[in-house]
Amino acid sequence: MDVVIAGGHGKIALRLTRLLSERGDNVRSLIRNPDHSGDVEAAGGEPVICDMEAEDDLSTFVAGGDAIVFAAGAGAGSGPERKRTVDYGAAVKLIDAAHKSGITRYVMVSSIGAHDPSAGGEQMRPYLQAKHDADAALSESGLAYTIVRPGSLTDDPGTGRVTLTDDMSVRGPVPRDDVAAVLAASLADNALAGRTFVLVGGETPIADALASL
Fold this sequence. Notes:
This protein has a single domain (2-211), classed as 3-Layer(aba) Sandwich (Rossmann fold), CATH 3.40.50.720. The protein is 36% helix and 24% strand. The protein is built from 7 helices and 11 strands. The strands form 2 sheets. Strands 3-2-1-4-5-6-10-8-11 form a 9-stranded mixed β-sheet, with helices on both faces. A two-stranded parallel sheet has the order 7-9. Strand 1 (2-6), helix 1 and strand 2 form a beta-alpha-beta unit. Helix 1 (11-22) crosses helix 6 and helix 4 (80-101) runs parallel beside helix 5 (125-139). It is globular, with a radius of gyration of 16 Å. The mean pLDDT is 94.
């Protein structure tokens, strides 16, 4: 499988790149900063320099791919405007690019709370609104989508055990290792197309948790 990861230098994205490359998939990582190329290559991916905010048409960057993973984000300290142009705008540009390039599989790294941005705190609300709107655009796109909404992210070692649920009220931490493992497994499972679920730490092995959705 040829997988294009948007936001390829992120902590989850680099972990996902390692997992995919180790199982024999080809990974192209869209990154804005050329200085991050070495980290992508060390993880087994091919760095592709792409400023998703500046480019109007992203189809040339994803052409030939089998799947897209949107793992990009404006990041901490960014204002509402950048959250809108990255967390929402870039995601929508990649939906358009997928259609133009004949890519049907699209996996979104969203966020807990994206189902109801109004319930978030003042600082979080623009981020959650951007994620909510990107998720809505993807779910209405006609693509074979999977939307993963992780809990609070940690750098603890992964356990390989999680809780996956469509109960959007569930909250909890989850290691980035386990988020990457769930994304990798989701890409390989077409039965998860059309699903949106919350991901937090738990006691169920990842394969069993995905099978029970």
